[in-house]
Amino acid sequence: MADIAAGIVVFVIVQYRVAIWNFLQRRSQYLANSWTAWTFGNFRIMNHSVYAGLAGLVGICITSLFVADPVVLLVITIANLARRRCMGAMD
């Protein structure tokens, strides 16, 4: 029964692929062109930094699905944060 449902979902995606693509393109352009900043004294947070933080969080969550040892996950997370800090310093 699950294979029939999956087949129907794939059929609908293929049938409406152009409309789905146009929708995804419009939404991504809207998101990319949005720029907002919140200022707290000398500290400024831009909305794009929130998106990058969420992307990192999703990456850590996906990594935690495959790594059973919490110490290894902590080392991976710290290494990733250090790498991002170094890449941010180069920008």
Describe the 3D structure.
The chain is mainly alpha-helical and 91 residues long. It folds into two domains: 1-34; 47-91. 79% of the residues lie in helices and 9% in strands. It contains four helices and two strands; from the N terminus they run ααββαα. The protein has helices at residues 2-15, 17-33, 47-66, 70-90; strands at residues 37-40, 43-46. It has a two-stranded antiparallel sheet. The radius of gyration is 19 Å and the shape is flat.
Q: Brief overview, please?
A:
This protein has 91 residues and is mainly alpha-helical. Helix content is 79%, strand content 9%.
Radius of gyration: 19 Å
Q: Spell the H/E element sequence.
A: HHEEHH
Count up the helices: 4
Sequence of strands across the biggest β-sheet: 1-2
What number is the mean pLDDT? 85
Which structural class is indicated by helix and strand composition? mainly alpha
Report on the biggest sheet: 2 strands, antiparallel
Work out the helicity level. over 70%
Strand content: 5-15%
User: What is the count of structural domains?
Assistant: 2
Write the SSE topology.
Elements (H helix, E strand, L loop, with lengths): L1 H14 L1 H17 L3 E4 L2 E4 H20 L3 H21 L1
Antiparallel strand pairs: 1-2
Which characteristics define this entry?
mainly alpha, two-stranded antiparallel sheet, 91 residues, 2 domains, 4 helices, 79% helix
